[in-house]
Amino acid sequence: MNTSTPSRIVAVTLLAVAPVLSGGCGFTQGKKDAEAVLARHFQTIATNGFDTAMADYGATFFQKTTKAEWTKALTKLSSKLGTYQSHSVTSWRVFKSASTSGAGTTVSLQCQVAYSKHPATESFTLFKGVGDSDYKIVGHQINSAALLTE
Fold first, then answer.
1. Would you give the DSSP letter of residue 97?
2. Do residues 41 and 109 lie in contact, with contact meaning Cβ atoms separated by under 8 Å?
3. Looking at residue 145, what DSSP letter applies?
4. Cα–chain-centroid distance for residue 123?
5. What secondary structure letter does DSSP report for 55?
6. What confidence tens digit (pLDDT) does each residue in 59-105 have?
7. Is 73 helix (H, G, I), strand (E, B) or coil?
8. Residues 36, 43: contact at Cβ < 8 Å?
9. Segment (H or E) for 94
10. Which candidate, 52, 48, 44, places its Cα nearest to that of 71?
11. Does an H or E element contain 81, and which?
C-alpha cells in the first residue's frame, strides 16, 4: 500500500491554494490604494478645484468626455449639491485582469458623499496598470435626488 499518495495530494493542494490565499492581500491593498486616490481626489476638489482634480482621471476617461466638458459638469453639479464635506466607502470590488490591451487591477468603489446642500451616491472605477505608479479614475457616476429637481 502506498501511503505517500494522500500526502502528495495535500502538498499539491496546498501549492495550488497558496497563490490564491496570498493574492487576497493584494486585493485588500488594491482597495486601500484606490481609497487613498479617492481621498486625495476629494481633498483636491475641496481645496484646489475641479481643474486640478482632472489629474486624478485616466486617459481612458477622457475618450468620451473632454476635460473641459467634465470640469463644466462637475462645476454645475457642485452648484446644485454644494461644497464637498465628507465621504465614506459603502461597497467595493477588486478585479485583477490580463488581456491583450494590458494587465492591471480595477477597483470599483461606491461612496456616500456629503455635500453642503444635498447628499449623493458616487460610484468610481479606478484602474492601475502593471507598470503604473498609481490608480486613475476611469469611471465616475454621481447620483442624487437633488439632481432630479431644477
1. E
2. no
3. G
4. 8
5. G
6. 999 999 999 999 999 999 999 999 999 999 999 999 998 877 679 99
7. helix
8. no
9. strand 84-99
10. 52
11. helix 67-81
